[in-house]
Amino acid sequence: MQHFNPEISINSGQVFLWEKHGDAWYGIHGQHVVKFSKTFQCFPEFKNIENTIFRLDDDFAAISSEISKDPFVSGLLKSYPGLRLMRQDPEQCLFSFVCASNTNIPMIRRMLYTLTRKFGKKIQADGIDFFTFPTAFELNKISEAELRQCGLGYRAKAVKAVAASIVSGRLDTDYLARAKYKDAKNELLNVYGIGNKIADCVLLFSLEKTEAFPIDVWIARALASNYSWLHGIKMSDKITAHQYDVLSEKVRDYFGKYAGYAQQYIYYHMRQEAGKKW
DNA sequence: GTACAGGCAGTAT
DNA sequence: ATACTGCCTGTA
């Protein structure tokens, strides 16, 4: 197994429902609680779930060599050893990033935490109470007003739309995981509340699309300052939908099938440089 | 009081 | 295609 560092990965802003108790980290993964200390554990029992969550099945040597073709990313691989992509539960990931639009990480954590406390099922682990992430079926039954009371604000409408899409079968995460990147992305974009950025986050973090390259304001800044030679687009923090498409195409073409891994390192670096600790 | 935070949809040109 | 606007909510 290659060296990897769960703690830096957990703290890199890709997951929201992990917390530290003592020297152990506990995370909500759909209907399970995952514990990481010296070893991994799952409640209820789920054999080798760490292989899934920390992507231990990835050939990191191959990935590293592929994205190291870019000198900037090559340096970041050395600067942040052990930083890895994590694989999330698809439904939880969808709802998490719908809630993540136009807000900050502490707020996202608050919204999701409240959702789990109110609508999740209690699971005890080491004497601590944890709550699972509510399913689409459960969220679909909750009124928009109740969701707003969890602090979601106008995102409540989008959560309802996503839940309804899943319950009706119009949106099928198993199909999305099997589908090609562009097909899966188009399906996601059809749902109210899901745009380019959220779609790419869900594709990368939970639907096996390692070529997905989410472009948020931080990545846009990096692309503007370090990669203008690659796209030649004049841009500010905010980019239009069309600019997003053009950038996305060029960046995926340049970084290759593991572009999402490169994105994760660039994103982490930008946040570090800005002194963000969440 | 105002500005801002890891977007998105709706409308007008 | 692009420009512009409003939107929940908590924090500085």
CATH class: Mainly Alpha
Range of helix content? 40-55%
Number of domains: 1
As laid out across the biggest beta sheet, the strand order is 1-2-3-4
CATH architecture: Orthogonal Bundle
Question: What is Rg?
Answer: 18 Å
- Mean pLDDT across the residues is 95
Q: What distance lies between the first and last C-alpha atoms, to the nearest angstrom? A: 30 Å
Summarize the structure.
This protein is α+β, with helices and mostly antiparallel strands and 278 residues long. It is built from 16 helices and six strands. The protein has a single domain, classed as Hypothetical protein, domain 2 (Endonuclease III, domain 1, Orthogonal Bundle), CATH 1.10.340.
Please describe what this structure looks like.
The chain has a single domain (6-274), classed as Endonuclease III, domain 1, CATH 1.10.340.30. The protein contains 16 helices and 6 strands. A hairpin with a 3-residue loop joins strand 3 (32-36) and strand 4. It has helices at residues 6-10, 49-53, 60-67, 71-79, 90-99, 105-119, 136-141, 144-148, 155-168, 173-178, 181-189, 196-206, 217-226, 228-231, 241-255, 259-273; strands at 18-21, 24-29, 32-36, 40-43, 122-125, 128-131. The radius of gyration is 18 Å and the shape is globular. The strands form 2 sheets. It has a 4-stranded antiparallel sheet. A two-stranded antiparallel ribbon has the order 5-6. The longest helix has 15 residues, at 105-119.
